[in-house]
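Quick look at the format.
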Amino acid sequence: MTFDTAPAPLDLAGGWRCLLDREGVGERDGWHVALPGDAVGIRLPGSVQHQGLGDTVAVDAPWTGGIVDRAFFDDDRYAPYREDGAVSVPFWLQPRVVYRGAAWFARDVVIPDDWAGHPLALEFERVHWESTVWIDGLPVGSERSLTTAHRFEVAALAAGAHRIVVRVDNRTVVDVGPNAHSVSDHTQGNWNGIVGAMTLAPLPAVRIARVRVFPDVARRAVTARIDIASGSAGAGAGEVTVVARRVDDGRDVARVVARYDAGYDRDLAERGVTAGGAHVDVELALGEDAPLWDEFHPALHALDIRLDAVVGGDAVHDETRTVFGLREVSVDGTRIAVNGRPTFLRGTLECAVFPLTGYPPVDVVAWRRIFDTCRAHGLNVVRFHSWCPPEAAFQAADEAGMYLHVEGPLWANQGSSIGEGRPVDAFLYEETERILRAYGDHPSFVFMAHGNEPAGRDAEFLGGWVRHFRTVDPRRLYTSAAGWPAIAENDFDNVPEPRAHQWGDGLGSRMNADPPETETDYSGWVATRDRPIVGHEIGQWCAYPDLAEIDAYTGLMEARNYGVFADFLEASGMRDQAGDFLAASGRLQVLCYKEEIESALRTEGFGGFHLLGLSDFPGQGTATVGVLNAFWQSKSYCTPAEFARFCGPTVPLARLPRRVWRAGEAIRFEAQIAHFGAEPLRADVLWRLESVGGETLREGALARGALLPIGNGTRFEAVSIAPWTVAEAQRVRLVLTIDGEGADRFENDWDLWVYPPASVDPGEVVQTRDVAEAIARAERGADVLLEVSPADVANDVALGFTTVFWNTAWTSGQAPHTLGLLHDPGHPVFDGFPTDGTTDWQWWELVHGARALVLDGLPDGVRPLVQPIDTWFEARRLGALIEARVGRGRIVVSSLDLDADGDRPAARAFRASLLAYMAGPDFAPSAVLEGDDIHGLLG
């Protein structure tokens, strides 16, 4: 029997029987024929762990993922979290149960009468990891793809009931690297199961095997390359009808019928010889008005393809649809161009973090939410770090106009490597071929790398990989890997240089070591290149963990790491400050991201960047690097609109030589426009200086009706804002506005500080750097300012201006160890030093080179006036400005740099404000300390 149209496949979703094969005896004991009676019911699609099957987490759990910080196993602080039945690992989100091994699944299906005699296709989408199939006890085959559906061709079955048995093994089939996000417990977890579509369908004797769509933007045309497969001794003769349609309105725009004659040998067919097939190339003109696909106008087309063939006298039919976009991506010098227009990549990473299920979603709605969130924050690229998303992600990205950077499932490092003849080399080629075959038509699939940060003979091996697959499928840009190597074969280099902070920079990184300004760019790097640079994993700035988030983990993954950090904070007497720590560190995190992103946008000829990241990374010791949490939800301290002011298609930029100014000197800046919109923009370019309350202090126009071209090379003549009388320290805001025609309006802003000459009058306050003198004078009744020299502080807390980079546990304690300063902006000590309770640029002079004091030995009630926020792995009580009563006197201990000499207007203003407070009526510390307490602060 033949089919006029392809019959609907059987949906195999639903109830299955399942048994975990902990001892690896399933095949020996005949489980492929029938599962033993202790098998339990389970739902597929799904994972065994998500449905409660597995083992309680133990200290020696069989994790997939490297562990850098061994403190959990050795440090007494972690002893309560190593107890049987109560293990809480601080490395990553912890599944409620863990299982590594084989799981067996079985169910019966009924083959319809009209399917009898037809070979069948059995498909499982998103399997982790290796699947082996038996039907009625007979072997069908095995598959091991981490990226595409497992597909099995099944010999014809008789009508009636049949038993399908599937064995899924989530152990390391190929060493892709223990930290690869395709397999690692650092992110999605090492789940076991099948989580996507599960179908069984009959195969026509001749069928459409593959369609590849190659757009020609200049000609508004497309070529469809159609492979026809045959399970007989030939594909016979037939015709292929291709209809092009607009997806938005369903309108037909082109139709072509192509004939072929591949021949057929009945004698060979009757002897079971399986050879044959055919190929057809079809070109369709889509019309001069055919819209292009890009981030601004994601117009989609579809090709509906029908095969009508005659094989041995029998009519055979098959049909398929593929969706595509008229899109071409190219390299123009050091720029990336989409459809010929220069494009600046503003990306973030998706690291397979799905806490509720522990595995990635396979529905379009879930992915649409993620991409919509990215777009709201001004991004146009999502990089999939060492994994490839499912089909639904590509569909959602096509609709959203999101550019995807896709990688093979490799992070061949930390014990794995490539180019040395290991099985992973062949696996990479297999997986890349499968990825291109499955997802290659999607216009959102714009960039491809083999994986992340390889080890081994990577440059030699990946040069051949890039050359090969660029030839196989030239519809996207290729790079060897995310991170390295930067080889000649690359279309673009995705490298970690340049960026504001590298691993190992510590307090020597730019924002920690150099006074604040907004002029730095990376033009020197661009000048040395002949192809685009895309910044690799820039940012990595942490906020304090949101401990209120713990209750959101209602699925498979538990935030037991957060529970550990909460306990540490409780033990230090600071649990009530967790929300303040989050808010203060979060605002500093945003400040760091703003400067880092603007540095890239200021660089002419730069290709773009990938943030690490817009959302948190819960693995590798817990890296809370996002303004969004692991659920892609806001942490409340930064709105999408605020983020998009400095990270979007069109961003006004101000080049300022400094952030802090003296009253009486002109504020100088140069305006620059980064405009990577859909088309050039005609607009007024305006500036204003306003007070914190929004009152305009000065304003002007840089241009009226200016035509802003695509790019970031538009700069305007420098502006010098005449000085004005300032009676007291003032924070002001420089605002740049692009006021375009219609609704096009873009703004960006920078806080600045203007300080009048500060009279530093100590009055009766004793100022000293000598601890013994300070204690003695205070005990006798004096008011004392003790300025602690950094050389006298013996603790190992590295106080920085920026927040923590990645996290201190996984960087071997890289500095800084702090996440900014917490303080009460309404406290009178700050009357002459405008601040808002978080770290902003005016604090740089005070923090640079300073130290934090450890207050753990002081009474619990001592809360500093300025409190550095410690890394959550230590949760020490820290202080940088402390007040107390000592004997009959009063003392302020400062470890900030209060040196008022030289070009340090902020430090001078703070010192004056501090001394005025100490000389005034509000200086009334309540804490009482002994001399030994003061000495203890230094040790």
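Next, a different chain entirely:
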Amino acid sequence: MKTSLAWLNEYLDEPLALDEVAVNQLAEQVARTSVEIDSYTTIARQQDGLVVAKVLSVNPHPDSDHMVITQIDAGESEPIQIVTGAPNVAAGQFVILAKVGAHIINHGSGELVTLSAVSLRGQMSYGMLVALQEIGFDNKIAPKDFEAGIYVFGPDDGVKPGDDAIAALGMNEPVLDTDLTPNRSDMLSMIGTAYEFGAMRQVKVQEPDFELIEYETPADSQISIQIDDPSLAPKYALRVVNQVTVKDSPLWLQKKLWNAGMRPINNIVDITNYMMLMYGQPLHAFDLDKLSHKDIHVRLANDNESLVTLDGQNRALRSGKDIVIASGQDGLMLAGVMGGTSSEVDANTKNIVIEGAIFNPSLIRATARRHNLHSEASARFERGVNWDNTFTALDHAASLADDLADGQVARGRIEAANQQREAVHLSLTAKRVNQILGTSLDVAAIAGYFDQLAFTYQINGDQILVDVPARRPDISIEADLIEEVARLFGYDNLPLTLPYGPTTPGKLSLLQRQIRGTRRILESLGLNQAISYVLTTPNKAQLFAENSADSVVTLDYPMSSDRTTARQNLLAGLLDDVVYNAAHAVHDIALYEQGRVFIAKQEDQQPAEIEHVAGVLTGSRLESTWQKGKQAKAVDFYDMKGVVESYLQQIGVSDVSYQATSRHLNMHPGQTADVYAGTEYLGFVGQIHPRLTKAQKLSPVFGFELNIFAVLKNVHSSVSYRPISRFPQMSRDIALLVDSQVSSAEIEDTIHKTAGHHLVDVTLFDEYTGNNLPENKKSLAYTLTYQDNDETLVEAEVNADFESVISGLQSQFNVTIR
């Protein structure tokens, strides 16, 4: 909230100093004690040379059909000639003059520029008459559009030629922009902020006083109220003001509004906004003569009901959910959020109805979110308003309508609901405060902080009984009171102590090291880490899961329809990542993700959380890199299997086997294998089913998903590293004619068992099936590499080991050596 310190001073017994040094110190104190300060500045910033001037005469420009020549009284001995194209300039007006040498903010670029005398179509202009937008006002707070012309002071604004326009407009008033937390709704009002600043500076607060004069015409003869359900509006009342004159607000009120970041509209609307800023209580004014029925009806929206709000949007209301203020059956406003155009106050309005209420905060928040319509009013109703000030703000607004709009306040306030606030009485002891804060405060010192906060209390021995005022809805338990003591005592003043008890060196557990090792291994294999949402749709949650569909974990109150269910697999999220990358012209993709999946248990139990790792490959690859080149080749099942195999080998899992399977409904039935360590199931690897990838116009995608807990349970040896041998390798090639049902894995397993201890690598470099081979036969060719870490191998040793391999293969598979 933007807090004008000049306005705040109206409520403090000892005003705040407004010089730059004092404001800096205040901002620091607020940030340390209360809430964060987003910024503090003035509208004027570095501008100068702006004065109030009176237009003495306006004459046509001889060489222009849209510019005029004016003579201006700026409080100097001689009039100043100004050439302007302002459409609204007229003799007798009090306007803003930027004199020659003035520094003003350029309306287009926002930069600071220096004015000089210029010739416009042959006529000299010694300055510039300006609109508020040309001196730093944002369009959102300027009372008139830029196209309407220059700013004109009102007849009762009390300005004279030569006055400093920056001071007259309140542009030099420092404004603190506080970044409020949701619980500090009290600081959404100037009075609530005054109490906060007063507590920090030990200054008393004086709330505003006003006089309400009622006329003879009774209010209840002009309007009545009906509330369907008391829970919709526990407090609701109306004031009627007759014979108002709608016009611009006086300058003092406009200054308060634009320094608070709000745009002045007219005196009636400005009064309601002024009360909202002062008391934190949103009000709304209706044009009484525009109501179709003289009955205000507070109800929930009907079926197929719509309402055009003040922003010009036709909004379809949600039946039974949105609170509507209606006249008869005609909707007037979306309660607590925004008014409607049908009863809008305009220049022709003569009789008004002012509404003051407290609406159900849960329903207001739901309505604001549903319609994406977050207003100043809804922000306050959602967080909680001062229960005791609702009708005070309403009466004060009626009094101002009398003063500023020449209205006549009808006799009587029409109250339809006035539930009493449930009083909050809390107690605490000095012992408890000191135990929590580590201080040594006595009862009198603690009570002094409640005096600063203007809380009423009673002292009973060591106990303090505190009555929490309605302006502080954030205080409801003992801990809240202790927090108030800590804030005012000063967090920097709390005693510092070292932790006590036995200490242990911090380090990662074995499980944590292994999980981090998983990420390092997969990244070393060329995969990039992806992070997907844990929450997804029920369909994606089950897409690659292996449990039954009735065991999903769903949220009772999801944020959106596509984030309702906790994931049970990682592959679905990675597939979404592939789709996203492919849509952005990235086709060679290698990703992995490591994270938790959630499996539901019985209704009264928390879901099981299991650590998984998954990966995907698609596109092209080179023999030893993921980069695309002349030798690019599409990835296949063996590339994905190689990633899994390398990972399991490096993490320390032995006795790994792969069994072809077709049981995974969303994986290719002919290119998918289950992964086992011994007899324990670890996960699966294969091609994602073409019906999924083709639907997204993707190339073939290969993936795996493993249960990390199962993988790590089968890590039976720590990974050790040996130095690279300094001695040369020797290799032998062998081509085998074998039965077609014999797998390469079986051949390689036999080679390793029979090759002796010098074999370091076996590589399948050729597979052939087709012509010139016997039926049901295939040819497999391997390179066997031999090396010794301690000495140079000799031919005799290698030949002996190679012959042993040949004998083993012939004995096991009846192979023919080609």
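The first strand starts at residue 2 and ends at 4.

See the schema section for token definitions.
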